[in-house]
Design a protein that fits this description.
0% strand; 151 residues; globular; mainly alpha
Amino acid sequence: MAVAERLWRLCNLFMAAFFGLAAAVQVVYLVPAALTLLVSIKPSVTDNGVWRSLCDLHSGGCIVGTIALACSLFAYAQGNILHEEEGRELFGLVIITIWMSLCRSSAKSPMGGVRLIAAIVVALFPFVSWLYIYVNKEMRASWPTHCKTVI
């Protein structure tokens, strides 16, 4: 197995873990968690019609949700959008959409080059963001109570 294929599988495993953890609080992450786990096990699953249909349907829903949340945020946000629940949800939907797009396009040609670098960046982004927010006491201080009990 080539290095690029191992990295692609590892990225999918990271994203499956992220989506799985996120699914504990937002059901919208269950479908990408399952689809991404399948890709980490067998990357060629992205050629499967059922996999592609689920991916397309879920991505379409995420795009609609992204547009709705973005409109809401632009109309009502009063500061840093990461301090708004809708802002965090918006970023989650964007991550899902980008990741599902990367997975879907991996069926056409092997992952490598710019797409593999993009996959690595996107796979690390949620974990690096979480770490930054977790150690940033100022940001955590402004959270609502239900967010202060997360890992």
